[in-house]
Backbone:
């Protein structure tokens, strides 16, 4: 599994290109940036400085000093900007320092008062957008676990029967909450964390967190975005209908499936990410759905250590080999509910492919065949 530090060469290249003296980032405990840059889930705020091709980390005295390969790690309880400036001063008394645009304001002030000029860089964001083989394998492993989680939901729905216009499973009414718990239990067995991102929604009744009893004929959307042991995320959503009558939900599903197929045609290296996103939405709308009121605006974007990373499927970013993106096609209707298909796609040398390619049909019994 990927665990080593990443991004150092990209940071060094940015420093050289901008004739800067170094790079500074403040990695919050809950931000995957620190895990990417250090290869460790440190669980604490860290001052990260890259200077002269070397990595320096500063941690508070309230934690044990972690061992991080190829990095100098020391305790420093001074404000983050002062700690970073002290490291930089050993190499240059002044000059340009690169930093992500999210660097805290007080850190920026400390660096500027120490004689350094801050300049924003997207070097780390851009490096994270291109996954290597290890990272792709890690995400694909999470997608396989996600598929098994949704399979658990499909098996339950296929086994359910109708009593008094309600779906019943195990001698009790079947609800969105019961399915969500079973999906999360399966994810746990698979060794991934649901991170509170599993949702089961149906029809137009209740909100995201409401426990709603299920009825035949309504679309049921099961969506997961688990995190694997190496920190990488997955994303998978499928729509099921028990005793479908072939109405609105069938047409919406055909539209979403067609949009999913479009991504496999258009998401090639060199393609404009925004164009791919617009094609997904246009294909969905082509089946008679309103682009403004029914077709989702969120058609996806990069995924990795965070559920949302670069590149986003809008704007003018060019897709490159190694991009891994969440692809989402969804249609919502005030009276009929929602249909959604979400997958994770990798842009490869031979074209795009879905990771953990899962069935797409509305009939849950097809998942157990």
Residues:
């Amino acid at each position: 599994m990927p665990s080593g530090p990443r991004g150092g060469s990209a940071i060094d290249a940015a420093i050289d290109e901008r004739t800067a003296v170094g790079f500074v980032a403040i990695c919050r405990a809950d931000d995957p940036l620190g895990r990417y840059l250090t290869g460790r889930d440190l669980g604490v705020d860290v001052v990260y400085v890259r200077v002269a091709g070397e990595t320096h980390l500063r941690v508070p005295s309230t934690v044990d000093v972690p061992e991080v390969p190829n990095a100098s790690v020391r305790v420093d309880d001074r404000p983050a900007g002062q700690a970073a400036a002290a490291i930089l001063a050993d190499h240059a008394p002044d000059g340009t320092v690169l930093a992500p645009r999210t660097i805290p304001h007080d850190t920026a002030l400390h660096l500027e008062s120490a004689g350094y000029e801050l300049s924003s860089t997207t070097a780390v964001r851009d490096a994270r957008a291109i996954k290597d083989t290890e990272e792709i394998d890690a995400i694909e492993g999470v997608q396989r676990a996600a598929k098994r989680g949704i399979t658990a939901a499909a098996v339950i729905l296929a086994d359910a029967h109708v009593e008094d216009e309600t779906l019943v499973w195990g001698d009790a009414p079947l609800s969105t909450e019961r399915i969500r718990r079973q999906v999360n239990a399966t994810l746990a067995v698979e060794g991934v964390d649901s991170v509170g991102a599993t949702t089961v929604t149906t029809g137009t009744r209740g909100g995201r967190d409401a426990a709603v009893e299920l009825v035949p004929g309504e679309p049921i959307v099961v969506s997961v975005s688990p995190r694997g042991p190496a920190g990488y995320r997955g994303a998978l959503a499928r729509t099921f209908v028990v005793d479908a009558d072939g109405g609105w939900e069938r047409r919406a599903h055909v539209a979403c499936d067609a949009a999913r197929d479009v991504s496999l045609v258009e998401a090639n290296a060199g393609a404009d990410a925004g164009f791919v996103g617009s094609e997904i939405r246009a294909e969905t709308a082509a089946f008679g759905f309103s682009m403004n009121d029914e077709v989702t605006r969120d058609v996806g974007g990069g995924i990795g250590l965070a559920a949302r990373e670069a590149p986003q499927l809008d704007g003018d970013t060019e897709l490159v080999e190694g991009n891994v993106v969440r692809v989402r096609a969804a249609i919502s209707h005030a009276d009929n509910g929602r249909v959604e298909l979400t997958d994770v796609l990798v842009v490869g040398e031979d074209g795009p492919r879905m990771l953990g390619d899962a069935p797409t049909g509305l009939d849950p019994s097809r998942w157990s065949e």
Summary: The chain has a mean pLDDT of 94. The CA atoms of residues 20 and 96 lie 5 Å apart.
